[in-house]
Amino acid sequence: MGYTLHMAVQDWLLTASERGNPDTGIDRRHDGVAWSVGNEARPLIHGAVYFAELLRRVRAMRRADVIMFTDWRGDPDELLEGPGTEVSRVLCEAAGRGVVVKGLVWRSHLDRFSFSEQQNRHLGEEIAAAGGECLLDMRVRPGGSHHQKIVVLRHPDRPELDIAFAGGIDLCHSRRDDRDHGGDPQPQPMAAVYGKRPPWHDAQLAIQGPAVGDIEASFRERWDDPAPLTRNPLNRLMDAARGDDDSPDPLPAQLADPQPTGTHAVQVRSCGPIRRAGADIRSPATGNAASPAPTQRSSVTPEASSTSRTNISGRLRSCAASPRRFLPTGI
């Protein structure tokens, strides 16, 4: 036997005062209500499903459309589907068509610690060469990282196509797995116990409706953060020597929120690192965690830590699976 739990939206989601973050404007975008209604939120299970939809939608974009994305790790050569669908190539082709491409990826710790310093730098360089802008962002506490994984696609003359993706799937190696869990043909090296192509179970939420504007606002708060992209003097010196772009260019004006298109209430709540003891959580270095609420409600919820991040279903984590164990990735 089962039962149905009915909860009012205001009992499930937080008001702006309950959230208690005056430094974000997201909670004040909807006439005093800290969430939006009339959304359609679809879970995309497995990277192969997400990548295929992302590829289709990006390739349909044209001049003056806007792509905004954030990532923890971005591998330029990761295939979204088959040959010719490398992440960098798809985004660069979009920029070549006149699409505005703006990205923020984690600057990363040094590669000798097995992080993604060079991959993220190369992705940014290739997008910049094509006319887009992808910056390395290290506005976190020491030892922290940006785990926000969102993509926002806006279409000034075709608003019915506007969509945002938020969840746990990076645009990088090992993520393009499917329900059979044979692993991504482009695997990220892991412990031998997981095999040569580690299985990877993950999810991303596809959101259409007014909440797209909230997720875009989260990106904009981070993009417009006046703090330097890095405070490390050595990094800043090296960036200057290479001529790296450390100053985000202005974004196009934000469009009106998409029209209601579904039955879901969605709340987007900015979160980011507490940068010093006793400080408030500031909105610009943001992360979103997506958590479907019961009875046709979805909540994109925060998590206060030294890391900005994006999760689906509250605490559902990406993991490499083996018959014997799961390896949480900390995403």
Q: What this model shows, in words?
A:
By secondary structure, the chain is α/β, with parallel strands linked by helices. The protein has a single domain, classed as 2-Layer Sandwich (Endonuclease, Chain A). It is 20% helix and 21% strand. The protein has 7 helices and 15 strands. The chain has helices spanning 9-12, 16-19, 47-59, 87-96, 117-129, 211-223, 233-242; strands at residues 36-45, 66-71, 100-106, 133-137, 146-147, 150-154, 163-167, 200-201, 203-208, 264-268, 289-293, 297-301, 308-309, 319-321, 326-328. The protein has a 10-stranded mixed β-sheet with strand order 4-3-2-6-7-9-1-10-12-11, sandwiched between helices. A 3-stranded antiparallel β-sheet has the order 8-14-15, with no helix packed on it. The chain has a two-stranded parallel sheet with strand order 5-13. Strand 6 and strand 7 form a beta hairpin. Helix 4 runs parallel beside helix 5. Mean pLDDT is 78; it is low at 109-116 and 276-331.
What tags apply to this protein structure?
alpha/beta; single chain; 331 residues; disordered C terminus; ten-stranded mixed β-sheet; 7 helices; 15 strands; Endonuclease, Chain A; three-stranded antiparallel β-sheet; 21% strand
Layout of strands and helices, then pairs:
Layout: H1 9-12, H2 16-19, E1 36-45, H3 47-59, E2 66-71, H4 87-96, E3 100-106, H5 117-129, E4 133-137, E5 146-147, E6 150-154, E7 163-167, E8 200-201, E9 203-208, H6 211-223, H7 233-242, E10 264-268, E11 289-293, E12 297-301, E13 308-309, E14 319-321, E15 326-328
Parallel strand pairs: 2-3, 3-4, 5-13, 10-12
Antiparallel strand pairs: 1-9, 1-10, 2-6, 6-7, 7-9, 8-14, 11-12, 14-15
